[in-house]
Amino acid sequence: MTKPIIGPATDPHAHDRKSTERGAAERNEQYKALLEASAVVLWLAAPDGTLTHLEGTIEIGLLIGDAYTGQGWFDFVHRDDLARVKAAWLWAVSSGTPYQNEFRIKLASGEYRWMLANAVALKNPDGTIREWVGSVADIHDRKQVEEKLRDSEERLRLALHAGRMFAWEQDLRTDYITRSQNAVSLLGVGSGPLAEFLDKVHPEDRALRHHFAQVVKTQGSYTSEFRYILPSGKVLWFGSRAELASPDRVVGVTFDITDRKAAEEEIWRAANHDSLTGLPNRGLFHRCLEQALSDAKINGTSVSLLLIDLDDFKDVNDTLGHDAGDALLQEAARRLAGLMRPSDIVARLGGDEFAVLLTDPATLDEATQFAERIIGTLREPFTYRRRTVSSRASIGVAAFPEHDLAPTGLMKSADIALYRAKAQGRNRVLTYSPAMRREIEKRVTLGADLREGLARNQITPFYQPKICLATGQIVGFEALARWEHPTRGVLDPAFFGAAFEDADLAPAIRRQLVAKVAADMGRWRDDNLPFGRIAVNFSSADFSQPRLVEEILEAFQSAKVEPEAFEIEITETVLLGRSSDCISAILRQFRDNGISIALDDFGTGYASLMHLKHFPVDHVKIDRTFIEDLNQNADDEAIVAAIIGLGRSLNLKITAEGVETRDQEQRLKRLGCHYAQGYLYSSAVSGLDVGELLARFRRA
Questions:
Q1: Pairing relation of β-strands 474-485 and 533-537?
Q2: Which of 82, 340, 596, 671 satisfies CB 3.0 to 4.6 Å to 344 for a cystine?
């Protein structure tokens, strides 16, 4: 028997070997494909960490073959990561702990890409390290995404920080609030339960904030503003905007609006408060008045309104300057505010006018007593730049519901009472009465009638003679305005005197009067009547006319009368009405044109001597109040004697007004008075009767 030949074709294990080789080749192909698809480098290293083998599709640097072994791969690690990578690898080698690190490495293309390196130690039975097995995976795309995310988060963080805001999320099931990191710098707290946050919300805003999330859940979104008290005690304003993200989750942003609120408050204050005194202005006061009356109607209570006017404000402005006037207003505001109760309101309505609203239940008598306290307080002097400044005040009082039910009507009632207080001498309190309103209405009606009378040329002069006490002859006349009313006859200023306080009526009356006086003087001159000098009273309103001097001179030029035969009479109120320099300049223009200046009602004002010093006065007229009791009152006689002596020493002519008896006449002669005027000699007569009056005195 022949033995079979044993060879490859007949080897019983040949098929298995070929199968094994094929499987190994396939696995090797799969392995390489896996490395290529996963962009991973596999590597081996000795126990001391020296790289012994590297396999993969990532081409690191320009190393090939065995050049990757040893420590050569460190040369391609980014220099910013090298120290960290080396230190971490050496620590892993020395401790045997698994290694993981992220770093940038330079590829063959010259590009740096982020890699993730992992390694574990294979150990011998005795625990010593036999070999390191590791991998390097390309994580560059992931790192770029992470970098962009970090940049985005940083921009968001910076935006939140710059805008002083933070983002938050509230779990409606637990009321736990998760807040962004910068919440700590704004609130003083980070994430936490809602109750922790509400404890620091201002008590007045806490209820609104507590239900904030529920409102968002109901409406889908909501915005609110509230105050928050920091741990330091400082109060901030925050605004919150939130939306419902899911049935149990609300997301939102909270932002600091403290500066905006402060700006809004400043804008509101500027719009509603007086810039000089800081008090509420007219607009805010009217709103307060409307609200007070509305509340009083509902509650059945009363409201008292006080309108206050500083009597001497113009004097202070004219004599000490506008800065002193401002100081007076500020001091008055401070004193008024100091008198107010928490329920009271004081405001500056404009100029030197203030208003007080008393809303606490009080009687009208109590309001009047309070007004008297105000007058006493404002009267006390204060020092401004080493000058003593004092001021008096007039106050009009009106009350709801006694005097009116509407805000406008109540203001009008108080204003009428204030007007009457000033007309009766100032420095007093007057309570409104219906009679005052009737008087004002009568005055308004009078004004309309008087305008019609002026249009019809019904204002005419009547003349009261001025007598020389030494000769008993007429030396001149005072022209007094009369209204030749078509139905009431001739009316004197007792009927229409209020018109001289009107800025429009007073100059119109004066123009018509002067024109007729000039015409009368021209006629008398033509008739050779020795009428002397004719005086006309000028009001404060006249001196506000820009062409006053020119108008007067033109009137006399038209009548061909010399202005030297004319005299202007003014009272001290005229001198107080405008800037003293302005009044003085106008008076000097009159005097430069030959017109004489007389100071009427001398002795009744508080600054008469100063006026004689600062204004061009030629003639002084002693007020009738000092003449009527001249024979019975030694004080009056002493005053008259002093005025006459003062006039003589200043080379001024002196006329006594209101002379009605021979005894008064004789006493004035003995005291050395120059002239007299009064009913003893004649009442005022029309221009047509002046000639007969002159003849009668010549015969006498």
A1: parallel
A2: 340
pLDDT tens-digit profile of 30-61? 556 555 555 678 888 899 888 888 777 666 66
User: To which residue do tokens 């309505």 refer?
Assistant: 349
Tell me, yes or no, whether 13 lies in a domain.
no
Residue 254 in contact with residue 238, Cβ under 8 Å?
yes
* 173 and 50 both lie in a single domain: no
Q: How far apart are CA 535 and CA 598, in angstroms?
A: 8
Distance separating the N- and C-terminal Cα atoms of the chain:
205
For 221, the enclosing helix (H) or strand (E) is strand 221-229
Question: Has residue 16 been placed in a domain?
Answer: no
Tell me what pLDDT residue 604 has: 65
Check pLDDT > 70 for residue 9.
Answer: no
Q: Is 662 or 159 the better-scoring residue by pLDDT?
A: 662
Within this chain, do residues 509 and 587 fall inside the same structural domain, yes or no?
Answer: yes
Residues 388 and 531 in one domain: no
**Residue tagged 């202070």 (tokens):** 316
Using CA atoms, how far apart are residues 283 and 593, in angstroms rounded to an integer?
Answer: 49
Here the tokens at position 217 are 């859940």
Count of domains in the chain?
4
CA distance 14 to 590: 149
CA gap 67, 83 in Å, rounded: 22
Query: Environment class of residue 456 by beta-carbon count within 10 Å: exposed (0-12), middle (13-18) or buried (19+)?
Result: exposed
Domain with 398, as residue range(s), is 273-432
Last residue of a domain, one of 120, 138, 156: 138
Residue 464 to residue 476: CA distance in whole angstroms: 9
What is the rounded average pLDDT of the residues 408-429? 88
User: Which domain-ending residue is among 432, 463, 498?
Assistant: 432
Q: CA–CA separation, 332 vs 310, rounded Å? A: 9
Residues 6+ apart with CB under 8 A from 262: none
Other Cβ atoms closer than 10 A to 418: 24
- pLDDT class of 110 with cuts at 50, 70, 90: confident
What pLDDT score does 3 carry?
38
Position 632 confidence tier, pLDDT thresholds 50, 70, 90? confident
* Same domain flag for 549 and 674: yes
Tell me: do 167 and 207 sit in the same domain. Answer: yes
Instruction: Tell me how far CA of residue 182 lies from CA of 168, 238, 676, in angstroms.
Output: 11, 15, 93
